[in-house]
Amino acid sequence: MKPTVQGKLDIVPTISVRDGEVVIVRQMKYESLEDEDGKTLDPVLFVEQVLKQYPRVLLVDLNGIESNRPQVELIQAVSGAGEVWVDPGIRYAESAIDILVAGAAGVVLGTKTVAGVDQLAAAVELSDCVFLGIDYKDGVVAEDEQLKHMSPKSVLEIGRNLKFPRLFFNDLDRSSRKKPLEADIIRELAAGPLEVYVGGGVTEHDVPQLTELRVRGALLSVLSIVTEAG
Question: The whole model's pTM is what?
Fold first, then answer.
C-alpha cells in the first residue's frame, strides 16, 4: 500500500467487514479479501496496516447494515488502531452512542437504514461525532418514506438545518458496476455548507475529478489501495 496525496482532498480508505472478515463485492456477491498467501485477512491487523499510510479509515459494518447486528466487539478492537469512522447501519439515534463508546471516532447515519428525520435530529443532539450519509441508487435509498422521496439536495438541507458536520454521498450502483461519477449531484452537494465525502467504487482514477468538484474527501475503495495485505 502507499498513501495518496492529491491537493487537500482527504483520502479515506473504505473497509467493509462482514461476519468478522474483510470483504469486497465481486459480481454482485461478497468475497472475502485474502492476502498474497491466500489467507483471509484479519480485519484488525488490516486496519492497523492501512492506518500506517492513511490518517483515518471508514469501516462499513455489513452485519449492522443488513441485519441490525453491529459487530461491536470488532469495532472496539479495530478502533484501538487509530481514527476509525464507522457506518454500522444505525436505525435509531441511541445506537450511535454504543458505537462511539466502542471507540469509533465518528458514526455515519445513512438514509438506507435510519428510521427517519427525527432520529437524525436526536443523534445530532447526542453527539457532534455523527455524520449524515446519503445512500444513492437512481435516487435516495431509504426505508423511511419521507427520506425516500427526497432529492439529495433536500437531504443536504436537512443536514444543514440540523448542523451535521459532514455529509457522505455513497453511490451504491457505482459500487457494483462501472459508471461515471454523479458529477452534477456531487457538485451541488459540495456547494453546500457541509464537508462532503464521496464513496461508491471510488478509485485513484476518480481523485482528480473529485478534486475539481471541490469535495472534502474521497471514500476510496479498498481494492484501490491494496498491493499486498496481511
Answer: 0.92
